[in-house]
Structure formats: C-alpha cells, structure tokens
Amino acid sequence: MKFAKLSLKASLAAMAVSLAATPALADHHMEAGEATDEAATEFPLTPEGAAQFVAKVESEYRAFAEPAARVEWLNATYINYDSNTLASQYGAELSVMSVNFANEAAKYAEVEGLDPDVERKLGMLRYAISLPAPGREGAAAELAGITTSMGAQYGAGRGTLNGEQIGGSDIEAEMGNLERTPEELAEMWESWHDNVGAPMHDEYAQYVSLANEGAQELGFDDLGTMWRSGYDMSPEEFAAETERMWQEVKPLYVALHTYVRRKLNEHYGDDVQPATGPIRADLLGNMWAQEWGNIYPLVAPEGAGDIGYDLTDLIAEKDMDAVEMVKVGEQFFSSLGFEQLPETFWERSQFTKPADREVVCHASAWNLDNVDDLRIKMCIKKNADDFVTIHHELGHNYYQRAYNQKDFMYLTGANDGFHEAIGDMIALSITPEYLVQIDMLDESQVPSADKDIGLLLRQAMDKVAFLPFGLLVDRYRWDIFDGSTAPEDYNEAWTEIRREYQGIVPPVARPADGFDAGAKYHVSGNVSYTRYFLARLLQFQFFKAACDQAGWEGPLHRCSFYGNEEVGKNLNAMLELGASVPWPDALEAFTGERQMNGTAMVEYFAPLMAWLEEQNEGQEAGW
Fold first, then answer.
1. Of these residues, 193, 201, 392, 522, which one is catalytic?
2. Which of 129, 524, 566, 571 has the fewest CB atoms within 10 Å, i.e. is most exposed?
3. 522 catalytic residue (yes or no)
C-alpha cells in the first residue's frame, strides 16, 4: 500500500501549517494592558485584540487557500516550468505569511485572560509551521525554490531495469514482481536511489539550513523540535511516547522479521540472503522495504498460507477499471451512512497516469475549496495495493468533508495520525466476508477459520512490517535538524538507522556522498512521517472501538462493520470535531481511551504471534 500525505491543498495544513494539536503555551502570561511593544502589532495586546488578530488570520488564510490549492493541484498533475514557477511563488508567499503570523501569535499568546478558543488557535499558529522560512529578504523565495525543485525532481525521477529507463510508479510495481531476479531487483533499487536521491543531496543540506534558521527565529532549537511540538506534550515527551509505542509492538515485528528472513534464505540461498542478520532491502517487494506484502507468496506457509483467493486476481476477474475500484471504496462509506461523493469528485480527480505529461503519482486526497471540491490524485493500477490505498485516500476525503463547517484553523485532523488512520481503519474491514457482500468473492471461496494464519500473515507483511520504517524516517531527520548528523554523513546515517530499526541493509555498497533518503517522497517533499506510525497503531484502536460498538463477538481480525450506520454515526461525531479539541478528547470520544497505544494491534495479531513463535523455534531472532 502506498501512503498518502494529507494534501497541502486548501487547508491550513496544506499551507505549511500542520494543525495537529495545541501544545501547552509558555508559562509566562502578560496581564491585559501590560507594557509591551504593542505598537508593533496591528491589534492591542489584550484578549479582545488577540481575538481580532485570529479572526484576521483566518480570513486571510481562507482567501489565500483556494487559489493556492488550485496552483498546487496543477503543479502535481501537470509538471512543467510554468506550474513549478507558480507553485514556487505561492510557496514563497505562504512562507512569509505563516512566519509573520506565527511571530505575531507568539506575542498574543502571552496575554492573560485569553478566550480558550483563541488561545488554542494562537498555539496552532505558533507551533505548527511545517516549513518555516527565515525572515530575511529573499530567504522565503530561496526555500520555496529548493522545495519545488526537489519535488519536481522526485516526480520526474527514473530508475533502470535491464538498462532501460523506468518511471516511478512502474518501478514500484516491478520491485514487487516475483519473477524479477535478485540482480534485476538490485539494479532497480540502486538506480532509483542513485538517480533520484543523490542529486538532491546539496539542495537538501541548503533546505535544512534555511528551515532551521526559520525555526530558530520562532524560538525553537531546530525544525525537528518544532515538528514535535504539536502533540499536546513537550517534544521530549512525544519522542519518548512514540518509542514507548514502538516497544509495545516490537516483539511482533522481530518475530515476523525472523520468519521472513528464513523463508527468503530458503528461496534465494545463503549467497543472496544469509540465514542470520539483517535482510537485503531489495528482496522485500518494495523500494523502501516499508511493506512486504508483495512477497507474501514466497513466505506463505503450506496449507496455513493458502487463503483461497487473491484480491488482485478478483479485480482482474471483475474487469474493474480505476473508476470502478474507487466506486467500491465509496460504497463502503455509504454503507455507514455517509453522503455520497459529489459529482465534481468524479469529474476532477486524477485516477490514472496521463500518457502525455509528467505528474506526481504519489497518492493524495484533496479538498480544494474546503467545502466539497473533494478529489483524489492517484495513478491507479488494478491490484490489491491500490484497492486498499483507494479506501485510505477516501478516508481523508470523508474526514475533510466532516469537519468543513469548523473554523478555518480547525480544518484538519485531531492530530496528523488521525487523518491517516481513518481510511486504514476502513481497509481493515476488507475481509473475505465483505468481499462476498460486494459480490467480488463467491461464498464458497471464503476461507475457513483454519486459514486465519494466512490472512493475518498477509496483513502483517504490510501493517506490522511498516512500523519501524514509520518511526525511523523522522528520527533520522531529527538528527539532521539538530546537527547530530552532518551532510557528509547523510547516507551512512540512513543505512545505520534502517539497520537498527528495520533490520535491513542495502543490496550494494552505498557511496558516502549519496542521499538514499531523498529517494523517499516524504523526505524530499518535507512531509513529516511520524503521522504514519501513529496512524498504523491508531487504525487498530479505531477498528477495535468500531467492532465493539457493532457488537462483534468473534476474533478481532474477523470483524467487519460494513453496513453498520451506528458505527458511522459515532465515527462522524469524532471526525466532525476536526482539530477543534485536543486529540485525547477526540480519541476518547470514539474509543473511550485517552492514550495512543499498540495494544489493539497486538490483540488483532495475537494468533499470528503465537504461530510465529512456534515457527521460529531454534532460529536466531533479530539482527
């Protein structure tokens, strides 16, 4: 499955301000009317003045959002000099706006007696800029130019297969092609990282310098500290919390890694994949080894691994095109009582890759007018991965529409992991029973309970395998932002942290002056990645809550709440809050819990864990 960013497009998050949640404000507060540099602000430094300031900010951002979103859409779906130039210009203007507003918000945030709603919005402005530009003349334009350049390079990126050039979406698919030899896999892996990542090295170092300068002007140590400040806790507490969550699920990942390594060793032999130690990154069916589902046939155990059907084959048997695949996803949400998507969604979305131009194929979901100009942008292929990704992207769209009546500052998820989790929660309900309900699978093909290990293993190959990658992408960048990793060490540090968390290594020696991390969209695109780690765990919390509300009494992994409008009603009650309340309040509203955790995922995969422990007996665990 491909992981989509929540689109920039037409929300404050889209405009370089990721409205995750409001952290605690500074301890010091001014008394209303206290002597300050009030002359430097447009409105008085009083509770009333702060409310006026916030109203002005929301008005100006709303006016800017829609045209900026349309430029961003154009730049993503028609990459050329003009669209790059327009995107860069809007990006520079946005950077100036957001930094100026953040600096002003910091002054009003110290006023005593603020209205709680105003205080929350000031916190969002102050802490949640994803890419702060320095205030000096020309810096915003320079930073916007760099980020636009890196984005365009990624979108036009090419690797090679047997010496022939191959584009991004195609090379991703070929990395999961089990007919490819280890030599071909290594060629694609190496060429993509060399051709896409390495040329960005120097620009990325410039980006880091400029973004850190901007963050420091706002009072943060570095950009990473700023990113970690938007989760209703201190940056240090957030880093510790995510590590705690990882430790809850790490034993499951290690067990899966140990099992998969043995199966790859049996398939390829010691010369390609040793029986102990880390796994070769290009053998896992994905360019970044972030999800392993494409190699499931290589590791499926005899009997238990045969679930009796293949979703990609079912799509082919139904002769479904891209639009029909999206219609199936829409129907799931409709079955929960959600309103159908508007006609403009079908007219304006990009479902497949155009033949006549370059586009960014990375899947994303958009609401260009913050009302109902909903769209997805994908280069859909008729396979199981994209079938699931469609459900994920539509989750963004339904979330965007649910909160569209909120104030502009609240037009995003309770935290950034919420947005990513909603669609994935729906995708967990793509069970055999559901496929029968939508007439994609014959009832006689529904696997019996003794096939559950196969079902769970297939899911774990994506959902569990992803966890360390979801955590390490930002941890790697935090070390760059705080200076722990220097530009000359970018590549070595990337290789080392992937070995530490994922237990994988490159298929070939890597150059010290390369930049393999830049070959991952979210790094070159300045998209924080911890949201995906949070989402991977939150989806199971949401899923368990939905199943409990539906009265499900069987094993958690067999639950489907398709067609349950009560679940839809309860879910919508959380979605429509947007970012108007702290994320623990939103989480509690639907799940009854106030802490994100991995316990629901552990419960979901408990039968698989027991089986893996049996299979791994006598094997050397870890790397």
1. 522
2. 566
3. yes
